[in-house]
Amino acid sequence: MACKTIVEDNIDILVAGAGLGGTGAAFEARYWGQDKKIVIAEKANIDRSGAVAQGLYAINCYMGTRWGENNPEDHVRYARIDLMGMVREDLLFDMARHVDSAVHQFEEWGMPIMRDAEKGSYLREGRWQIMIHGESYKPLVAEAAKNSADKVYNRVCITHLLKDEAKENRIAGAVGFNVRTGDYHVFKSKAVVCGAGGASNIFKPRSVGEGAGRVWYAPWSSGSAYALMINAGAKMTQMENRIVLARFKDGYGPVGAYFLHLKTYTQNAYGDEYESKWFPDLQKMVGKEYLDPELSHRTHRPIPTCLRNHAIINEVNAGRGPIHMVTMHSFQDPHLEEIGWHNFLGMTVGQAVLWAATDVDPKNENPELTTSEPYVMGSHATGCGAWCSGPEDLSPPEYQWGYNRMMTVEGLFGAGDAVGGTPHAFSSGSFTEGRIAAKAACKYIDDGKAEGIRVSDATIAKLKDEVFKPMEHYKVHRNEIVAGDVNPNYHNPRQFLDRLQKLMDEYGGGVTVNYMTNDKLLSIGLKKLQIMEEDLEKIAAKDLHELLRAWEVKHRHRTSECVLQHTLFRKETRWPGYYYRGDAMKLDDENWHVLTVSRRDPQTGKYTMEKAPLYHLVDADETAAAAE
Amino acid sequence: MPTFVYMTRCDGCGHCVDICPSDIMHIDKTYRRAYNIEPSMCWECYSCVKACPQNAVDVRGYADFAPLGHSVRVVRDEEKGVIAWRIKFRNGKKDLSLMAPITTKPWGKHIPHLKNAPAPSQEMRNSQLLYNEPKYIRMDDGDIHTLESNGLKLKKGVQY
Questions:
Q1: ipTM of the predicted structure?
Q2: What is the average pLDDT score of chain A?
Q3: Which of A4, A11, A372, A504 is deepest in the core (most CB within 10 A)?
């Protein structure tokens, strides 16, 4: 390929991926580093990239502390029970104590946030959710990031992080390519904030053919956050904690506003309430500590998302599907009906298209719900991501080794999906994490920790060959065949994606096996992924668009491998309704009330697994009393 | 619901190519007009539909589950700060027009340039505060929330 090499040198902070986390990082970095060189690399166009590209109709993480609604610790307790205890409470508390600042600034910038006419506070959809007209959420935060950055490289896909050659285990930047021009980009940077995305499309989706793009999380979320960090040797946590979503069937339209604001509820095909009858058996699996419907009823403690999925899955398997969302009551009110439609148009237009195509008028019929294929991400009701240091004023020693949100690779920071153990951050929390990471990254540089980073020309040349190899491979082997895509010497990116999805689905606990896996299946799956990795050396890209897809599927593959390693390690069923370990069908607090932490050795490709202790927030008085 | 492009409306300006988050809107080399090169990676996010100055990009529901004969159209106006939707059902019984604000202020005029903000003091650098804080993060005038201020401790072990 006749492509130029473009080297951007002397960067202080490189933001790799500019969704909500990355834009927050770029924005804030300018305040703490007013003379620093801040550069953004984004594989799409920052104005409409990341998971919030099409907008949002709610901000799902807002404390409302200034209205006396919630304190940070309330949110931590909520996330803790929803994730069956497996969260980083230091990071969660830290995010929650800052998040309101971000949300109020969004409003100052022009985001239409709905108000409660009586109280004057933001209009609540639920305890943590507020309602917005967020069609332009992404362009708005993009504007803030652009105001702060020295340069924004749109359409530059980051393929590798660069490690320092002067000091071991230190970051030195990243490389990638321009999806339009084919230029090879080298970013030499003192610190990197990884704002890349979680992973859709690693488990086979329910949709087939053309509809395969109708995934819950954006199809362009290619697990790059995880693959970049794993390949750089960063430790990961909670990668087994994939998420399954109960959503409107086929369109995967959001249900939050329906349940919380529009007061709809679910029933089985025969009009019966089904959830509670699955709870006694489920309670035997997970223990009364995690599932106590009476206590939940009394105290409004939520029933964990995964457990509610479990009830849907079992009711459908018992032959009483489909599950319906009962909308016919609420939607008689024309105002509520309008909110229902706005909710889709604001964040999942496709669901509105589907209802228009199938003449679903929720006033006259109760639409179907389903459980989705699993997704790997870290900002919704799940916490996959890197093992990051917490803030010095909060974190216990096991959680703290340097700068806030810095990973186990020096100078590599994360936000949003990239940070592990911090579920329920959503858009506002991801932006906030970006801000936190940026401040810490500036401090890291100011403390002189990034002095003397070095990247050799040999490394740059080697990675260039690697980046463009799929196009070379295509060129070499294309003319062995007459036409078409069947070639004995390569697969194209789509063929690899299909192979990955089938494998993950069948061995890793996808929809076609009812989210079930076990140690044997996982071991076979890992072997197959190993063979696939060998074959990925023979991936072929006929043009730059396919080169983008080639790197996306490589990143998805690495993410998948880590997911299976973690799933195999945690020998229990911690989240029934997300996935089941058939060989260990119970929750096991005695052995597994821990966070799982992995590291893949970049040289050997071998994983090391360990358990990290869980710390939980408790009342200080309580511990004092217990000590007496 | 993959996007498609009307032959007679598209003038090949490339706005959709420029904005598509999935890199699937490309210009056809023969017709010099845009089209969706990979419908199975389309999220129906409508970014390209909103960006098209000719209203040439539209959406037809996914072939594997959406019947034909529906329409969801949109016009987004940054100057007026509104977005207007029109939804038409396949059976013709519903024809909804919905409008929503997209901003409350002149576009982009109220987003700060932090390079012009007064530089943070050393004290602030050493604190846990972020830009513009502690504004908005408390009901009272206090500082950032800490474990101490909220009467909390992090305790190792099994807690619920």
A1: 0.97
A2: 96
A3: A504
